[in-house]
Amino acid sequence: MLPEAEAAAEGGEAGELLRRVTRDRDSLGGARRGEHVLSLALATGVCYGVTAALLKIISGQLRTGVTEPLHHWVLYVTCLIGPTGFLLSQNTFQQGRLVSPALAVITTVDPLIGVAIGVSWFGEEMVGGPLVTAGELLSGLLIVAGIGVLARHGARLLHHAGTPAGRVPSSPTEPAPIVLGEPALSEGQLRSRL
C-alpha cells in the first residue's frame, strides 16, 4: 500500500475507502483486468466517435477558407481528443491478450457515438417506424451478445490452451511464457500444409 494510503488509513471511513481503492488497484487481476480493458475500449470508442464529429465540423469550416478552422476551438479540441483516443487504444491492446472483445467494443461504440452526435448536434433525422426501430434494437442486442460471447469464449480458450512450453496458464490474464528458438510449426507440419 502507498505511504499516503497508510497515513490516511487512520482517518476512519475515508481511510478505509482509500485502502480499498489502493488494494483493488494493486491487485488488478483476472476479472478486474478484463473489465479494465473493456472500459478502456469504451473510452477509445467514445474518443473516436467525438473525433469523427469534430472532423466533420472542421471540414465544413474548410469550405469557408483554409485558415478558418484556426479561428475556432473545434480544431484544438480535435488535436487533443484524437491523440487521446489513439493512446487509449494502444493502452487497451497492451493490457491483455484478448483483443477481440476490445476491438468489438471500439468498433461498436465509435459509430453509435457518431450517430448520437449527428442527431443531437447536427440535426440529422433518423428514419423511424415500428419495424425499423425493432430491427435496430434487435441488432443492438445481437452486437452486445456477440461482444459477450467474444469475451467469454476468448478467455476460456486462453485459459485452457497450452503454451509453447506445455504449461497451462493459471489464469486467463496470465501471460504465456515465451520460448525462444522454438518454431511455431515443424518442417513436416509446414510441408504437409503446402
Automatic annotation (TrEMBL):
Keywords: Membrane, Transmembrane, Transmembrane helix. The chain crosses the membrane at residues 37-58, 70-89, 101-123, 129-151. The keyword Transmembrane helix applies. The keyword Transmembrane applies. PANTHER family: CONSERVED INTEGRAL MEMBRANE ALANINE VALINE AND LEUCINE RICH PROTEIN-RELATED. This is EamA domain-containing protein.
